[in-house]
Predict the structure.
Amino acid sequence: MKLLVLGGTRFLSREVATRAVGRGWDVTCACRGTSGPVPEGARHLRWDRADPPPAEVVDGGWDAVVDVGRLPSQVSTAVAATPDAHWVFVSTVSVYADNASPAMEPLLDPITDDVDLAVDPEAYGGMKVACEQAVTATAASAAVVRPGLIVGPGDPTGRFAYWPQRLARGGEVLAPGRPEDVVQVIDVRDLADWLLVLAEQRTTGTYDAVGTPTPFGDLLAGVAEGVGARDPRLTWVDAAFLEAHGVEPWAGEGSLPLWLPHPAYDGMLRHDPAPAEAVGLRLRPPTATAPACLDDPVTALSPEREAEVLAAWHAR
């Protein structure tokens, strides 16, 4: 297999390139290279996607292309330059207009302009819709993959890694919402392996790339088992109390990761993995993912803030 990875230096795209090299494929990573080196065994083709595609891209004779791009102009240019390859385009569940539902419709309106997400982060989903449309309209064949929360080693967001690291520290652990609230994550290694299956088999269609929907309490129990934390002391605190005390949901400074407000986001972490599993996706449990995340960077609720919120909860 002659594979072109658009990217190849960060998280998912790097994992795809690494695993393709491990399969003995001929792998080229087309990128600027400013985020780090491409994996050993892959060729680095320097390309700033703001520029026209170089001849090596156009004349590469690629069997497949894997792209994680988000800017419509860049995705349109790349697929037009490689229309004979089988495209595997990595989109996102953020293309769905209704986060309260796990259904694969309706989609957001496409945004065909390249929007700076630092200025308008809400444009992300609409731009990905436009990218999907460009791929399916131009490529000879294509699979569109819509991941939910991608986790595992190398995740720059730390959204999942907070929990293995927090549970490994021990003590009383602030847990958000209710243990029966459903969450789902997909290990970057499982997703990368599956993208290569789609590329090799020239699978077509659109799929949600998600893990098994799991009660939050079960996920944390699995994470605790994975990092050797025996009998973790979880204190479940309701969402209204957390919000009143300034604890943020989902990710970022001052947040409890993976927690999302209900009912507005009830569908975002409840998508169905069965269609993807039917065409080759294989999922490892969070127990197996957790140990690989103990050294990843985390930006979330500090230990001091956690202690303050727990003290306020017990004193209410």
